[in-house]
Specification:
- The complex is a heterodimer of chains A (203) and B (432).
- Chain A has 203 residues and is α+β, with helices and mostly antiparallel strands.
- Chain A has two domains: 5-62, Arc Repressor Mutant, subunit A (Orthogonal Bundle); 76-195, 3-Layer(aba) Sandwich (Glutaredoxin).
- Chain A has helices at residues 5-16, 25-36, 41-51, 55-62, 84-87, 91-102, 144-157, 164-171, and strands at 76-81, 108-109, 115-120, 132-134, 137-139, 185-186, 201-202.
- Chain B folds into three domains: 9-231, Rossmann fold; 233-323, Roll (Ubiquitin-like (UB roll)), CATH 3.10.20.600; 328-420, Up-down Bundle (de novo design (two linked rop proteins)), CATH 1.20.1440.230.
- Helix content of chain B is 42%, strand content 12%.
- Chain B has helices at 9-13, 21-26, 31-39, 42-52, 64-70, 92-99, 101-114, 129-144, 175-182, 212-223, 226-231, 263-269, 304-309, 328-342, 348-365, 373-384, 400-414, 416-420, and strands at residues 78-83, 119-124, 160-165, 207-211, 233-234, 237-238, 240-247, 253-258, 280-284, 293-294, 318-323.
- Chain B has a five-stranded mixed sheet, with no helix packed on it. In chain B, strands 3-2-1-4 form a four-stranded parallel sheet, sandwiched between helices. Chain B has a two-stranded antiparallel ribbon with strand order 5-6.
- In chain B, helix 3 packs across helix 10 (212-223) and helix 14 packs antiparallel against helix 17.
- The chains are: A alpha+beta (203), B alpha/beta (432).
- At the A-B interface, helix 2 and helix 5 of A face helix 6, helix 8, strand 3, strand 7 and strand 11 of B.
Chain lengths: 203, 432
C-alpha cells in the first residue's frame, strides 16, 4: 500500500530533524513496520523517493538490521533473549515453553498472525535474566510458567497497547533495577514505541 | 565496603520520579550547565575533564579529556552519545537513561559548550524503547525550559538534541559503525585510518562520540572539580564506575563503586554471594568480549590496569558469574553464537570464523564432537586472531571477531578437560 499524505507528513517531520535526509532512513523504516508489520516493497519505493536514494539502497539497509522485519510479523512479536546471563539462568526452558504454546519455531509467524516468535541476542536485561520482550517492551525475571501465562494473556485478552510496566507487573519477577514510577506508554505495533517515530502510545 | 554514589545518587534519593525535570532541578540539577555558561570559559571545562582523568566508560577506556582535545576545528561539529549498550551482561547505561535522563542532557549541554557544538545525537539501541521514551520526554522538558534550542541559558548559543533509535545491531556500538548507522547506512565499521571520529566523523565532520556513563559524569565533575573526581578510585581508574552484576548471584543489579576492590569482595558484598551457596567456577570481568577468570582469580582488583595485566579487560563493566554447576561449553557457545549473529560480515575471518566456531561448539555440546575438534577450534581462532594473544592481534577492521575468540581460549586455558570429556577418545576412520 502506498503512503497517505498523513504518513508522508510524519516522514517529512522526521527528515527535518537531520542535517542530511538519509539519516532519517532508520526511523522511516519503522514507519513502514508500524503500518504493515514489515518492510513492504511499496514502502521501500516511498522511502527511496522521500530521501532520494535508490530502492536497493533502502533494502540493503533494511536487511542489515534485525528489528526491521523482511516478512509480515504477527500482532505480537515475542523475543526471548538467549545471551549469556539469560542462557545460564534457564532461558532455554522459557524458549521451550513459548514454542510449545505457540507451536512456532524460531522466526516463525502463526497462520492467524497473532504471534511471531524469535530467539534474540542480549536485550540489556541481564540483571533480570531470563528476560523477554513483547513488541520491544521488556519483561524481566521470566519463568517457563509465567511465559505460558503471558502468551495466554496475549492470545485471549488481545491487548491493544503493549506496555512494559504492565507486563512486568503481571508476569515479571526479578528486575535489573527498580523501574521507578509506573509508566503508561508503550506500542501497539511491532515497531518500538517512540515519540519521534509516532509509535508511542498511552494505554 | 560501600557504594560511592555520584551518578546514581539522585535516582537513589528520588526512587519514584528522578527522571522528571522538576525533581532533578530541586536537587541541584542543571547547576553545572548554568555554571559553565556564567564562567564562559570552554577551555577551562576541557581542562577539568582532563584533570579528572576519567576514561571512557563504553569499553575501550580512552581518556575522555584527550579525546575532546582531538576534536578538529570546523564550523560544523557534532556530539554523538553512544547509547547502543549491547554487550552481553551490560545494563548500566539503561538505568542512567531510564532513571536520570536529565543528568545525561546536562552532560551533553556542558560538553557541547566546551567543544562549541550545536547539534547532538543520542543513539539509543532499538530494544531500549522505554528508556528512549524517557529520554525523549526529558529532551522535550529541557526544550520547554530553554535549556535546549535557541539561545540556551541566554548565552547566544544554540543546541539541538535528537534522539535516534537503532534497530538491533550490536556492531553499532563500535563508534564508526554507529556513525554509518546514524547516516542511514548499514552498520559496518569504517576502515581506519582515519582513526578518530574527532577528526572525521558524522558526515565526515569532526565528531565526539562518548558513552552515556561518561557524559553523565560530566555534571558532577563540573559541580565539584576534576581534582575531586581524580581523588576517587585509584590511579589510572579514577572516579566511580557502575558495574552491572548478573549470572548466578543472589542480588544482581547495578552498583556504583570506586574502582579498586576485588571481584570477590564485590560479588559477596553487593551480589550477596552465590545462589544456593555454591562456589564460583568462572566469571566474566567486563562483558562477553572479555576473556574469563576462574573462581581462583576472585582476588584480582577491579581496575582497568589490574584486569588487563591479568589477561582480560574491564570493558563495559559487566560482571557475569557462573557457578560450579555451569556447563561452560554451553556458556561459551552462547557467547560465540552471539558474535556469529552480530558479525557485520565485512571481514572474512570474522564472518566465516565465528560461524565455524559456533558450528563446532554446537556439535561438541550435542555429543557429536570429533577428537580433532579442539585443534580445529584453536586453528580457527588463530586465523581470526593470530597467536591468540591478549590484547588480541587483529585480522579484521574492528575487534568483534577477536571477541569471539575470548571464550574459547578461556575454555581451553582452564577448563580443557570439560571439553575433552565430551569428545570421543580416538579418531574413528570413515566414521562420517
Amino acid at each position: 500500500m502506498t503512503w497517505d499524505s498523513k504518513l508522508i507528513d510524519r516522514a517529512n517531520q522526521i527528515i527535518e530533524l537531520y542535517p542530511q535526509k538519509r539519516s532519517a532512513l532508520g526511523p522511516l523504516l519503522y514507519l513502514a513496520q508500524e503500518k504493515e508489520g514489515y518492510i513492504d516493497d511499496d514502502s521501500v519505493v516511498e522511502i527511496s523517493k522521500l530521501i532520494g536514494i535508490t530502492e536497493v539502497q533502502v533494502r540493503s539497509v533494511a536487511s542489515f538490521y534485525t528489528m526491521y522485519k523482511q516478512e509480515p510479523s504477527g500482532k505480537y512479536l515475542i523475543s526471548v533473549c538467549k545471551s549469556i546471563s539469560c542462557e545460564i539462568n534457564n532461558s532455554r526452558e522459557v524458549i521451550e515453553s513459548i514454542k510449545e504454546f505457540t507451536g512456532l519455531a524460531n522466526n516463525e509467524t502463526d497462520v492467524d498472525n497473532t504471534f511471531t516468535f524469535e530467539e534474540v541476542e542480549c536485550i540489556g536485561a541481564c540483571g533480570g535474566a531470563p528476560a523477554v520482550q513483547v513488541n520491544y517492551e521488556t519483561v524481566e525475571g521470566m519463568t517457563p510458567t509465567k511465559a505460558l501465562e503471558l502468551c495466554k494473556y496475549l492470545k485471549e485478552e488481545v491487548p491493544k497497547v503493549i506496555v512494559a510496566d504492565h507486563l512486568q507487573d503481571k508476569f515479571g519477577g526479578t528486575k535489573s533495577f527498580d523501574w521507578a514510577i509506573e509508566d503508561n506508554s508503550g506500542t501497539s505495533s511491532t515497531a518500538p514505541g517512540f515519540q519521534i517515530i509516532g509509535t508511542s502510545e498511552e494505554n | 565496603m560501600k557504594e560511592t554514589l555520584l551518578l546514581t545518587k539522585h535516582m537513589r534519593e528520588n526512587p519514584e520520579n528522578s527522571h522528571l525535570i522538576d525533581v532533578y532541578e530541586k536537587n541541584n540539577g542543571y547547576s553545572a550547565a548554568r555554571k559553565v555558561f556564567k564562567e564562559n570559559n570552554p577551555g577551562e571545562v576541557i581542562e577539568e575533564i582532563k584533570t579528572s582523568n576519567i576514561r571512557g566508560r563504553g569499553g575501550a577506556g580512552f581518556p575522555t579529556g584527550v579525546k575532546w582535545g582531538f576534536l578538529a576545528e570546523d564550523e560544523e561539529r557534532y556530539l554523538v552519545i553512544n547509547a547502543d549498550e549491547s554487550e552481553p551482561g551490560t545494563f548500566k547505561d539503561r538505568i542512567l537513561l531510564e532513571r536520570d535522563p536529565h543528568q545525561l542532557i546536562e552532560g551533553i549541554i556542558v560538553t557541547s559548550f566546551a567543544s562549541n557544538i550545536s547539534k547532538a545525537f543520542i543513539y539509543i539501541r532499538g530494544e531500549y524503547a522505554k528508556p528512549a521514551r524517557r529520554v525523549q520526554d526529558a529532551v522535550e522538558q529541557a526544550y520547554e525550559k530553554g535549556y535546549l534550542g535557541k539561545n540556551i541559558f541566554d548565552s547566544g548559543k544554540d543546541l539541538d538534541v535528537v534522539v535516534h533509535l537503532g534497530a538491533g545491531a550490536y556492531i553499532c556500538g563500535e563508534e564508526t559503525a554507529l556513525l554509518n548507522s546514524l547516516e542511514g547506512r548499514r552498520g559496518e565499521p569504517r576502515l581506519k585510518p582515519p582513526y578518530f571520529p574527532a577528526v572525521k566523523g558524522l558526515y565526515n565532520k569532526p565528531t565526539l562520540v562518548n558513552n552515556v556513563e561518561t557524559i553523565s559524569s560530566v555534571p558532577w565533575i563540573i559541580n565539584n572539580s576534576g581534582k575531586d573526581y581524580a581523588k576517587l578510585g585509584v590511579e589510572g581508574s579514577t572516579g566511580t564506575r557502575i558495574f552491572s552484576l548478573s549470572g548466578h548471584v543472589n542480588n544482581p543489579g547495578n552498583f556504583e563503586i570506586e574502582m579498586g576492590c576485588s571481584f570477590g569482595e564485590f560479588i559477596d558484598t553487593f551480589g550477596n554471594g552465590i545462589k544456593e551457596n555454591k562456589t564460583v567456577k568462572a566469571f566474566i570481568p567486563g562483558g562477553a568480549s572479555a576473556p574469563w577468570f576462574t573462581g581462583e582469580m576472585l582476588d584480582i582488583k577491579m581496575t582497568i590496569d589490574d584486569v588487563a595485566n591479568a589477561g582480560s579487560m574491564l570493558g563495559s563493566g559487566a560482571v557475569v558469574v557462573m557457578d560450579e554447576d555451569t556447563n561452560l561449553v554451553l556458556a561459551a557457545k552462547s557467547i560465540v553464537s552471539f558474535f556469529a549473529h552480530e558479525s557485520c560480515g565485512q571481514c572474512t575471518p570474522c564472518r566465516e570464523g565465528t560461524t565455524w566456531l559456533e558450528m563446532i561448539l554446537e556439535r561438541i555440546s550435542s555429543g557429536r564432537g570429533r577428537a580433532s575438534d579442539i585443534d580445529l577450534l584453536l586453528d580457527v581462532c588463530d586465523n581470526i586472531s593470530p597467536g591468540l594473544a591478549w590484547p588480541p592481534q587483529m585480522t579484521t577492521i574492528c575487534p568483534l571477531g577477536p571477541s569471539a575468540v575470548s571464550p574459547i581460549t578461556s575454555l581451553m586455558g582452564s577448563f580443557r578437560e570439560e571439553v575433552e570429556s565430551l569428545l570421543p577418545k580416538k579418531v574413528l576412520i570413515n566414521n562420517d
